[in-house]
Predict the 3D structure of the following.
Amino acid sequence: MIAGTRGGVTRGKIILALKERPLNANQLAELLQLHYRAIRFHLELLVDNNILTNAGGKYGAVYFLSPEIESNWELFKEIWNRLQRIDKKKG
């Protein structure tokens, strides 16, 4: 979902933002300066893969990190840091 997939960097940024505090799709779109529909797409993928959970229904739902990602936070950070190093080498 993060490494080796198109959109992985965006999903990583969403996860990092939600680690700071729960947000809804509109708040994430504003924070990350991305289109609302793109954020919704990534949120649905992350929920479907048990990385995020939500509360409040489809529209206006607030998203949280799932217990699975919380318990594997160190692994996520390791993957994220590797992606950042690779990105710096490309740039």
Summary: The domain at 8-90 is CATH 1.10.10.10 (Arc Repressor Mutant, subunit A). The beta strands are 23-24, 52-55, 62-65.
